[in-house]
Amino acid sequence: MGIIDYSLEPHSDIAFFDMKSFYASVECVERGLDPLTTSLCVVSRSDNSKGLILASSPTFKRVYGKKNVGRSYDLPFNIHTRRFNYQAAKRQQLPTTPEYVQYIELWARKTLIVPPRMGHYIDVNMQIQKILQNYAAPEDILPYSIDEGFIDLTRSLNYFSSDKSMSKRDKLDLVSARIQYDIWRQTGVYSTIGMSNANPLLAKLALDNEAKNTKGMRANWSYEDVERKVWQIKELTDFWGIGNRMARRLNKMKIYSIYDLAMSNPDDLKREFGVIGVQNWFHAHGVDESNVHNKYKPKSKGLGNSQVLPHNYVDQRAIELVLKEMGEQVAIRLRRAKKNTMTVAIHVGYSSDMEKKSINAQRSIDPTQNTKELQKVIVELFRKHYTGGPIRTIGIRYENLVDESIVYYTLFTDIDALEKENRLDQTIDQIRQKYGFLSLQKATALTKDSRSIARSKLIGGHSAGGLDGLE
Prior knowledge:
Blueprint: E1 14-19, H1 22-30, E2 40-44, E3 52-56, H2 58-64, E4 70-71, H3 86-91, H4 98-110, E5 112-114, H5 118-132, E6 141-145, E7 148-152, H6 157-160, H7 168-187, E8 191-196, H8 200-209, E9 218-220, H9 244-252, H10 258-263, H11 266-273, H12 275-284, E10 302-313, H13 316-336, E11 339-350, E12 359-368, H14 371-385, E13 391-403, H15 415-435, H16 452-456, E14 458-459, E15 462-463
Parallel strand pairs: 2-5, 8-9
Antiparallel strand pairs: 1-7, 1-8, 2-3, 3-4, 6-7, 10-13, 11-12, 11-13, 14-15
């Protein structure tokens, strides 16, 4: 290649694991079904025709042409009646021939639709983490999300494969296959593995662009594979770190593939994108100096939460109640992080039946973590922009965070009253921390429109488990 001297670059033995259709696979295993051949999807609010598809099995994706995230009303069948959904088919330009309708309805009757059980998925994830720790020290393992992560086998590779006649490439494949087998044997979940005897980037690219399509669900991309594999990636968006927006900007520079990116002038990329442009040029050459052991700690720019309401909320008082509840929940996280916020932002989305633009508004405020003050701003923002109509989604976000010691007072501030409210917030937080969130609630939590109690039982916004799905 000539441009890069790879002998000077880091060399580590990295495996990147991705649990195949994790949530859906766990649900299949619990039912004694094969995750690869069963049609199953995990739907948040599975009793609701507008639930969110969180995960689906490989067979479900193949039959319905659906990726994980989407709305259940976009499926080509009704999740309750299992009859063909002509409206959804029309929206997505699917065929409506008798043969296709019969095909979909046949599969629809065999498809399982289940609610999420986040607590159980976390338990299985912890089980997988223990399996990985049989092959590497905890500091050599970097979880990327609940169903994927890196494991650096550099220090333990020879321990599990001492055959000196084997290349490091073959040893990495052998050990990765053993881990893959252990995960399947102990959890029933299949895993896909991207490997590299170079760095984490190439392991991730191997997984995304080759391993998923191989029989053994493993692939190795190392420095010697850059020209033959990395440069053959046609779509810029198939490359780690390049989204649609950056791809469009690269196209304007006449860069249409990863090969084009590798052959481009890094000075031009720096002028257009700054440091990120140069980083992407190095990535296109397979160079990545990130380290599994140096955990990336993102700077916290904000805290927020959002939810899809169980039904359309029309009454303005009910909408404001839920907004205030969510404002309080995020304020608790603010205080836990010992931060004050200087920006309050809200998102309020109308029902999909309404052709109205969502409300997205924000306001700069003096630094605070006080629940009452934040709720006041939230309600004022909502009232300023709300023009009536059924609401289905809401979100609250606090941004521009500063240390909680930073507080602004004016001549009109009642400091005693404010400090009293702050002490009350902290006392309530302490009680809830010790006895649980539901140990202390406002009377409004008992009203039919409140979401406080229901959401306190969720993990990651979804059911912790125990609910019956639609089968």
